[in-house]
Design brief:
With 283 residues, the protein is an alpha/beta fold. Helix content is 24%, strand content 17%. It comes from Pagothenia borchgrevinki.
């Protein structure tokens, strides 16, 4: 008897799990709450509750050589670092090639997952779902794979910003940012120097009257493209990891920091952090 597997989420992980289940002779059923595959990478103008949301210009910071599915290379004519629309094109190619969408139940939410009363013997799970028409169903599965990601709920700690209640401007999480146009000729503050913060600050700098990037500490800024135009993440190999293990930590950090400072002096821009490059870095 074929073992049934519930896959929750039809994004990149969900698609890979469906494919892996089929390779192992299992029967996957994927539940996707939206009307399409892609998860995080499906751009929508209006953010939806309990779903990840990206801005229009997002380009992935992992090269196509390193992010592709091992059994389905990304087309050669695609750029090394792809816009979110091309990532979606690739996902559709992957899903079509391996006929994965027929295993996906779109517009279906998973309400509850729990062990069956005889779980200690059967190892089975009860999965309760609801489709867009409000029809609820219960299913029995031999295994469950959770593929919903971790960018669904924005972190907006307003209690850390005294005076926010009387602030007359507009404030929002980067999840709600889409394009810079509505902020043209205005002043903006971007709080946080992570990937999204850096991206949005650069983009706003081309439209706003003034943009400020606020961060609690400095950061080592690395670019996507390394020496000779190669994607940076392609330079990491077993040899690189071995050298990191052999050489003193301080030495490898100093070498990396010197190279980054050759691109621009972090101290000059008040960005040099107290932590070493090998401790924490921002791509």
């Amino acid at each position: 008897m074929t073992r049934r597997v519930a896959v929750i989420g039809g994004g990149t992980s969900g698609l890979a799990c469906i494919k892996s289940c089929l390779d192992e002779g299992l029967e996957p059923v994927c539940y996707e709450s939206s009307d399409d595959i892609g998860g995080l990478w499906k751009f929508k103008e209006n953010p939806e509750p309990d779903r990840a949301s990206i801005y229009h210009s997002v380009i992935i910071n992992t090269s196509k050589e390193m992010m592709c599915f091992s059994d389905f290379p990304i087309p050669a004519h695609f750029p090394n670092y792809m816009h979110n629309s091309l990532i979606m094109d690739y996902f559709r190619m992957f899903a079509d090639h391996f006929q994965l969408t027929k295993h996906i139940r779109f517009n279906t939410k998973v309400l509850q997952v729990r062990q069956r009363s005889d779980f200690s013997d059967s190892g089975q799970w009860d999965v309760e779902t609801e489709n867009k028409d409000g029809k609820m169903e219960k299913h029995i599965f031999d295994a469950v794979m959770i593929c919903i990601g971790h960018h669904c709920h924005p972190n907006l700690p307003l209690h850390d910003f005294p005076g926010i209640d009387t602030f007359k401007g507009t404030y929002f999480h980067s999840r709600d940012y889409k394009t810079p146009e509505e902020w043209r000729n205005k002043k903006a503050v971007v709080i946080g120097i992570g990937n999204s913060g850096g991206d949005i600050a650069v983009e706003l700098s081309r439209a706003t009257k003034q943009v400020y990037l606020s961060t609690r500490r400095g950061a080592w800024i690395t670019n996507r493209v390394a020496d000779n135009g190669l994607p940076r993440d392609m330079l990491y190999s077993r040899k690189t990891l071995l050298l990191r293990q052999i050489l003193p930590f301080g030495l490898t950090c100093s070498m990396a920091e010197r190279k980054l400072d050759n691109r621009f002096d972090h101290s000059l821009y008040n960005l040099k952090p107290k932590h070493r490059y090998g401790s924490n870095s921002i791509a």
